[in-house]
Amino acid sequence: MRWDRLFAELESATLDELADERDALAEDLRDEQWASLSWRDLLGDPHVRLDVAGLGEVGGRVVGAGDVIVVEDAGRRVVVLPEAVLAVSGSDGRAASVPALSRTRRQLARALRDEAGPVRVVRTDGTAVDGRVVAVGADFVQVAVGQRRVSLPWESIAALVER
């Protein structure tokens, strides 16, 4: 009887030790997977919300990410500059794929210019310029506001919002 109890205790201790090792390995693997991710890898969550400097929270479906992040929500398109993103939140924090965007910010700004629709250019300080994109330079976007033109350096822009 004593031998049976001794072997049962040894077996139980071995199983506990194996379970601890398995849990430690699983945690190391999970940490390794998270360590290889970028915040941009989290943009594919269907419930993603971006906290954007000067604009606040933007939600919707990310339809592309690259030089800019394009979010579509309720039929409008928001072009967000990655450097203006302050936080990303979603339903569970797991990564999901998002289509790579091959178009640059200048190409997207030109597309907005060609559409000739009203646009709100939100600056990182929270102010906005409403008008139509009329020109896209090497490092700026020019917006017609009534009779005057306002040139906004990309460094000051947080997002371009279709109106």
Notable traits:
37% strand, rod-shaped, alpha+beta, 2 domains, eight-stranded antiparallel sheet, 163 residues, 2 helices, 28% helix
Task: Write structural notes for this entry.
There is one protein chain. This protein is of the alpha+beta class. The protein has 2 domains: 1-36; 39-162, SH3 type barrels, CATH 2.30.30.600. Helix content is 28%, strand content 37%. It has 2 helices and 11 strands. It has helices spanning 2-35, 105-115, and strands at 49-52, 56-59, 61-65, 69-73, 76-80, 85-89, 119-123, 128-136, 140-145, 148-153, 157-162. The strands form 2 sheets. It has an 8-stranded antiparallel sheet. The chain has a 3-stranded antiparallel sheet with strand order 2-1-6, with no helix packed on it. The termini are far apart.
Summarize the structure.
With 163 residues, the chain is of the alpha+beta class. The chain has 2 helices and 11 strands; from the N terminus they run αββββββαβββββ. The chain has an 8-stranded antiparallel β-sheet with strand order 3-4-5-11-7-8-9-10. It has a 3-stranded antiparallel β-sheet with strand order 2-1-6, with no helix packed on it.
